[in-house]
């Protein structure tokens, strides 16, 4: 049994009734004849036959009846214009009915109905509008008439003449309308007819004899008054027709003189007249309009007919279909199939291909206009009413627009396919449709209705839609198809959804809901929006909820743009509901416990939901529901994630306005502005009604965990970790001196203002304003719990403006007039001075795990509130800087500062300590430091003794008697503490100072904080360089380059000093310490030689080796510290203005700066050794390094300072930790069950290998005599040229054995670029020497020169073997080789790349 075809694919029957018929029907209160007959469609149980004579039963056989005059008026309208009117008309019907649909759906949902669970009213309306289209189209033949019924009544004066007039009438159709159809004659015989029944029978026989057997006599009673109404199916809606002045006639009306043309023929077409036609019959509609007057008894969905009349009309319709229409269509199919089959035979196809390849006329090669209507084998000439063949392009263009595909494409093959489809002969129909599809003449839209489900059907649907739109133009704006393309796509979509079984349509094979989306494309029309909506509805039935939500969203967006707000709101709510449904996740319950999340917690999609809620809020606001809009807008004020996209980003921007490289703009500004406007309007119009809504902000601004209470002694700035470190350092320092603790007061004083530092963070990406910000402080006593005390005064901040994502700390002052215990519970404010809000400042208590019940479930301790105890003032010390302006310092500058100290308590202070950060360099001016040398001219060199310890400096006890009139700081006393700040580190810095005090010995300590922020900028760029010296007076040359990078003023270099434990430096040449102009540099050179008087370097090296050996063995750390060390210092200064480095302030600053540099370097080199052990393993100075101190001055600004720079490392290293490392590598260690322990041990070992204490370098430096010129007269023969090669041992401790090998070939012999000759060495070419530490030897070589030229001296090789120091050799057992013992460190040295030392021999004989 074939599937039921859509109603729009049923046979179209046109009716032409005489005026007397309509008069009879009007008299009985009946609608026009086409509407009466339409009530009897579809017919049940109709059987058709295929071309193979196979019976095909149809459970339902639909027909479409219409008036010929209505078709004539509509067919002349331009198809593009008609399609546009149709789309607008469907949209207007949806707009008119959407509110009633919403009420109906709400009522059904409330009552639990099931009517609209599998269908939607808006899609049913669209389907009815599409099915009601009966106007023929030039692209398909479904609406072309299949049959023409000529109807007269016996109430006419002359029924035969009336029938003759209808037969001879000329029809006004364009030439592309295929009028191959069945002509049928109907005679209506009402009971009140003047003709008796026998005469009516005679009239019927005469009609059959004259016009054929396709005739019928329909007797009707039609009583008066009309009988009671009978319900009938609702008629499909029809598009209202245009005025007759907009569709000029193409053919003249019949003449009134009674002369008629030959039946079925049409006279030649005259030119179109510009004069308007006479108005035709009123348009046929189901709904009365202002211009049409229907009979009073007509009710739309009912009809006033007796049961006998209903049976008579039903018998007529069935006999018309079974006895006339179906047999005639079967006959057409048989005859057309013969013609189609003959054209598909091989000779015909070959002939067609030959004609196509070798040329033919345009008329023969192009498909002709529908000419099969004139075939006498189908319909006789007397029964035809079709146009003759007309290939005139001008006539076609005059009827249809060029945009509607020109002439029609309805040919005989297409009509064959359509008739076969209607009759159920699907085998023949599919083959013909396939042929048409391959020829590009349609068929892809019908094949999905006839074929079995397969993936190919989706391709057919895509092809059908692609042929409508064609290739889209390449343009930046989004392409929108023309109206006729949109309408044809809508028709295809309705046919597919109606004609394919829903279960198959939604299967994974077809996925028909995607067809509807493709048919909708990007058009902004209500019908296309319903395509998206129905696709979403089908996807929801299918279970694809996310896809359904997306398409609901698109449909709502399109409907909102067209102004259909009720339906748009419904779709927005559907999408919102679907996006909020959680995705089922089959996860273990342990997952939710580990993530501390609830399995029912689901927030939806934050990238989409805000956009939907915003649209709903705007729609509610525009429709008058301000309260609902305010709730939606308020719900949108949420903290957005960093990766969240713009919620309105689902429509693609084809114009490239949004760059993917830039972050998307935040919608918070739009949401906030809409909320402010809506809420302000709501308060102005509704008064205090907003209070009953229970509005509460979904966001919070106060950060309860970060909110702190600050007392007058606490500092606001500074890192909390820094203050904790200072307190920990004090506890470590005092633990060995006493048991007194450092008490954190945590209490405020009476009549003293303290602050609640409320941390507020703006979670939005837009500026917000909080007014009347304050905190709620309540008395926590048992008898007055929860009541506000009059003794508490809380500050109120008028207005706080927070920038986007801004975090600020707002201090709110609180003052109490008596001792009291307070609890700060809430923070209150007015959001934009509109909505009062309150936020709790309680922090959730810790999770309890004490009992089994607590461990099995989540149990938390009570919330923690901010509690403040206010007591009488005791020991209080306030500290602040005298000058708190912003400091801008140069790197290394000395800055004198003063701190005011005030005893604001009631008890005296006898002991006062100062503690600053480890990297802060401070010197207290309270002690007389005039301990420098008494000589008026300080020497240019000195010895500086250093403790060589990495331990941080200890807290400094301030002698009150030096800065105050008495050793006790009494209550209300004030004192100034002067100190010098050395700005050693560039960048933004915080000077954090902790003042610790107490009343007397044995009393607990209290503290107060003070901080100062300053900025340090670099003004000098100092770099050092190192090279080996060829001079025997010094081993190295240390270069210091100073560049002025300030760029504003000259910088005077007043002194340049060097410090080292093993090397003494002396200036080379005569250096003048002049001022350095901006962007200029000056360079100084120092010669470095071993310091023979230094003896503490060996002790330092042995200390480090011993400590690292213990670390590698895993022995417990020894708390001993490095031994002291002596540093030799050399000064380069102008005149006698030398600053000795041993002055207390300078010595203190140098020690602090060196400690900071060494601590950072040690932490980077040994990250796996705990930092607390560094002070007992590593010393402050490496004896081999040379430090440089540069003193500078800005005379005009009266600013001065110094910069300490860790210079290069001099001398040779011989892997001092070699034996220790080898022992650690071969040591048998305990196995550990933790792999991390072994990895940490290996990391420590690798760090020790690479550290500066295990440095290994080649100790030999080679100097070849370069640039010497020898004059010789070669007329006397060859000559010997002496060459001196000096070998220097740069090691201060180890001797070396050296082998110098000379070769007669140079590395550049194979190069064509060198101009030097190879050295012709003569005599001894291998020299062996043993060089003691810091000594050198000179090897004398000879060249046997036979010709003048430049001879290269780069063909040498030095092999070095490092021996043990003489002290170790003498202390060891006797060696068979004497006093030498190798350290097994060997090196091979060749000339460096680019070294071209040479000797030049000049022939003086030629010069003479």
TrEMBL record:
Lineage top rank: taxon: Eukaryota
Occurrences of domain TPPC8 first Ig-like (ranges): 745-882
Record InterPro entries: Ig_TPPC8_1st (IPR058541), TRAPP_III_complex_Trs85 (IPR024420)
Bias kind Polar residues: ranges: 286-300, 931-949
Pfam families in the record: Ig_TPPC8_1st (PF24545), TRAPPC-Trs85 (PF12739)
Chain intervals with Low complexity compositional bias: 240-256, 369-383, 1363-1379
PANTHER family: TRAFFICKING PROTEIN PARTICLE COMPLEX SUBUNIT 8, TRANSPORT PROTEIN TRAPP
Name by which UniProt lists this protein: TPPC8 first Ig-like domain-containing protein
């Amino acid at each position: 049994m074939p599937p039921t075809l859509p109603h729009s694919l049923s046979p179209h029957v046109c009716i032409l009734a005489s005026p007397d018929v309509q008069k009879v029907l009007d008299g009985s209160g009946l609608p026009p004849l086409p509407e009466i007959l339409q009530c009897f469609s579809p017919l049940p149980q109709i059987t058709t036959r295929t071309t193979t004579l196979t019976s095909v039963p149809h459970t339902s056989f639909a027909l479409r009846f219409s008036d010929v005059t209505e078709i004539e008026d509509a067919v002349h309208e331009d198809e593009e214009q008609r399609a546009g009117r149709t789309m607008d008309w469907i949209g207007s019907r949806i707009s008119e009915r959407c509110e009633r649909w919403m009420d109906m759906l709400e009522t059904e949902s409330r009552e639990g109905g099931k009517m609209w669970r599998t269908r939607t009213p808006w899609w049913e309306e669209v389907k009815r509008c599409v099915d009601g289209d009966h106007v023929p189209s030039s692209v398909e033949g479904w609406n072309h008439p299949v049959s023409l019924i000529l109807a007269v009544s016996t109430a006419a004066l002359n029924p035969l003449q009336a029938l003759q007039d209808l037969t001879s009438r000329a029809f006004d159709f364009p030439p592309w309308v295929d009028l191959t159809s069945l002509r049928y004659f109907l005679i209506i015989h009402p009971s009140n007819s003047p003709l008796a029944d026998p005469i009516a029978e005679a009239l019927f026989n005469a009609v059959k004899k004259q016009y054929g057997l396709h005739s019928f006599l329909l007797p009707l009673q039609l009583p008066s008054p009309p009988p009671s109404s009978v319900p009938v199916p609702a008629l499909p809606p029809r598009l209202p027709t245009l005025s007759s002045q907009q569709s000029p006639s193409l053919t003249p009306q019949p003449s009134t003189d009674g002369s008629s043309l030959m039946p079925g023929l049409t006279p030649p077409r005259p030119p179109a007249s510009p004069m308007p036609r006479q108005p035709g019959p009123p348009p046929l509609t189901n709904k009365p309009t202002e211009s049409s007057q229907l009979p009073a008894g007509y009710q739309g969905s009912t009809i006033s007919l007796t049961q006998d009349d209903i049976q008579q009309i039903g018998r007529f319709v069935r006999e018309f279909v079974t006895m006339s229409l179906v047999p005639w269509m079967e006959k057409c199919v048989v005859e057309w199939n013969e013609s189609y089959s003959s054209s598909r035979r091989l000779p015909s196809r070959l002939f067609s291909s030959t004609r196509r390849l070798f040329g033919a006329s345009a008329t023969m090669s192009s498909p002709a206009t529908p000419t099969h209507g004139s075939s006498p084998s189908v319909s006789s000439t007397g029964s035809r009413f079709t146009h003759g063949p007309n290939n005139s392009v001008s006539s076609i263009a005059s009827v249809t627009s060029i945009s509607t595909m020109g002439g029609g494409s309805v040919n005989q093959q297409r009509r064959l396919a359509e008739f076969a489809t209607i009759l159920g002969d699907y085998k023949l129909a599919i083959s013909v449709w396939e042929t048409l599809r391959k020829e590009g003449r349609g068929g892809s839209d019908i094949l999905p209705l006839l074929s079995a489900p397969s993936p190919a059907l989706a391709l057919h649907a895509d092809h059908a839609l692609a042929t409508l739109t064609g290739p889209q133009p390449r343009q930046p704006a989004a392409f929108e198809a023309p109206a006729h393309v949109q309408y044809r796509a809508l028709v295809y979509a309705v046919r597919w959804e109606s004609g394919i079984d829903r279960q198959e349509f939604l299967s994974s094979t077809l996925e028909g809901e995607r067809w509807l989306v493709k048919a909708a494309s990007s058009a902004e029309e209500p019908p296309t929006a319903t395509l998206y909506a129905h696709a979403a509805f089908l996807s929801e039935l299918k279970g694809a909820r996310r896809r359904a939500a997306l398409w609901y969203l698109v449909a709502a967006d399109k409907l909102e743009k067209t102004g259909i707000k009720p339906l748009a709101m419904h779709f927005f709510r559907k999408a919102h509901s679907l996006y909020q449904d959680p995705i089922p996740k089959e996860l273990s319950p342990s997952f939710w416990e580990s993530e501390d999340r609830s399995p029912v917690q689901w927030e939806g999609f934050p990238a989409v939901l805000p956009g939907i809620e915003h649209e709903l809020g705007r729609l509610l606001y525009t429709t008058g529901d301000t309260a609902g809009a305010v709730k939606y807008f308020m719900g949108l004020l949420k903290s957005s994630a960093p990766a969240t996209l713009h919620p309105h980003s689902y429509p693609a921007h084809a114009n490239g306005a949004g760059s993917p490289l830039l972050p998307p703009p935040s919608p918070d500004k739009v949401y906030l502005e809409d909320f402010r406007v809506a809420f302000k309007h709501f308060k102005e119009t509704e008064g205090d009604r907003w209070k009953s809504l229970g509005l509460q902000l979904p966001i919070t601004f106060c950060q309860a965990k970060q909110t702190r209470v600050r007392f007058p002694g606490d500092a606001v700035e500074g890192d909390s970790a820094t203050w904790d470190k200072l307190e920990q350092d004090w506890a470590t320092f005092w633990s060995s001196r006493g048991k007194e603790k450092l008490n954190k007061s945590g209490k405020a004083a009476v009549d003293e203002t303290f602050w609640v530092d409320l941390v507020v963070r703006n979670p939005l990406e837009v500026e917000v304003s909080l007014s009347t910000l304050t905190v709620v402080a309540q008395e926590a006593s048992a008898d007055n719990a929860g009541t506000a005390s009059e003794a508490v005064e809380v500050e109120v901040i008028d207005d706080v403006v927070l920038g986007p994502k801004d975090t600020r700390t707002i201090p709110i002052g609180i003052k109490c007039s008596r001792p009291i215990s307070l609890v700060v519970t809430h923070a209150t404010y007015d959001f934009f001075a509109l909505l009062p809000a309150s936020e709790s400042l309680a922090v959730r208590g810790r999770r309890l795990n004490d009992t089994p019940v607590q461990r099995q479930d989540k149990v938390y301790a009570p919330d923690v509130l901010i509690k403040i105890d206010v007591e009488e003032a005791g020991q209080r010390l306030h500290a602040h800087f005298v000058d708190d302006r912003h400091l801008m310092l140069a790197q290394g500058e000395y800055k004198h500062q003063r701190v005011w100290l005030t005893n604001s308590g009631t008890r005296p202070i006898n002991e006062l300590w100062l503690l600053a950060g480890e990297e802060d360099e401070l010197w207290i001016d309270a002690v007389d430091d005039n301990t420098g040398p008494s000589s008026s001219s300080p020497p240019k060199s000195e010895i500086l003794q250093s403790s060589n310890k990495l331990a941080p400096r200890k807290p400094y006890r301030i002698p009150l008697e030096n800065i105050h009139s008495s050793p006790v700081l009494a209550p209300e006393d004030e004192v100034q503490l002067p100190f010098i700040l050395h700005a050693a580190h560039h960048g933004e810095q915080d000077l954090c100072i902790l003042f610790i005090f107490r009343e007397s010995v044995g009393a607990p300590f209290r503290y107060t904080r003070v901080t100062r922020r300053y900025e340090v900028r670099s003004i000098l760029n100092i770099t050092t360089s190192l090279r080996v010296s060829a001079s025997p007076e010094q081993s190295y040359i240390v270069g210091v380059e100073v560049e002025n990078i300030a760029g504003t003023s000259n910088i005077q270099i007043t002194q340049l000093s060097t410090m080292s434990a093993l090397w003494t430096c002396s200036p080379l040449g005569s250096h003048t310490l002049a001022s350095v102009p901006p962007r200029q540099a000056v360079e100084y050179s120092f010669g470095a030689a071993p310091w023979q008087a230094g003896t503490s370097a060996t002790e330092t090296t042995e200390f480090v080796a011993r400590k690292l050996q213990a670390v590698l063995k895993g022995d417990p750390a020894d708390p001993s510290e490095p031994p002291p060390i002596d540093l030799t210092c050399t000064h380069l200064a102008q005149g006698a203005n030398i600053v000795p480095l041993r002055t207390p302030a300078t010595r203190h600053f140098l020690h602090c700066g060196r400690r900071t540099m060494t601590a950072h370097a040690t932490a980077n080199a040994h990250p796996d050794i705990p930092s607390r052990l560094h002070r007992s393993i590593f010393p402050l100075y490496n004896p081999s390094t040379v430090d440089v101190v540069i003193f500078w001055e800005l005379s005009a600004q009266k600013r001065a300072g110094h910069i300490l720079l860790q210079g290069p490392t001099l001398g040779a290293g011989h892997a001092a930790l070699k034996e220790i490392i080898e022992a650690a590598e071969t040591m048998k260690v305990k196995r550990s069950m933790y792999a991390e322990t072994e990895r940490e041990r290996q990391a420590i070992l690798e760090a020790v290998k690479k550290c500066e204490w295990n440095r290994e370098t080649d100790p030999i430096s080679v100097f070849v005599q370069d640039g010497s010129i020898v004059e010789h007269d070669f007329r006397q023969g060859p000559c010997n040229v002496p060459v001196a090669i000096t070998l220097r041992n740069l090691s201060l401790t180890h001797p070396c054995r050296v082998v110098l090998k000379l070769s007669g070939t140079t590395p550049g012999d194979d190069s064509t670029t060198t101009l030097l000759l190879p050295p012709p060495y003569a005599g001894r070419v291998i020299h062996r020497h043993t060089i003691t530490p810091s000594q050198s030897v000179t090897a004398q070589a000879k060249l046997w020169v036979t010709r003048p030229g430049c001879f290269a001296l780069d063909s040498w090789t030095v092999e070095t073997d490092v021996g043990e120091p003489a002290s170790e050799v003498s202390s060891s057992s006797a060696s068979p080789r004497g006093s030498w013992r190798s350290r097994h460190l060997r090196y091979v040295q060749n000339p460096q790349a680019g070294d071209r030392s040479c000797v030049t021999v000049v022939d003086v004989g030629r010069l003479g």
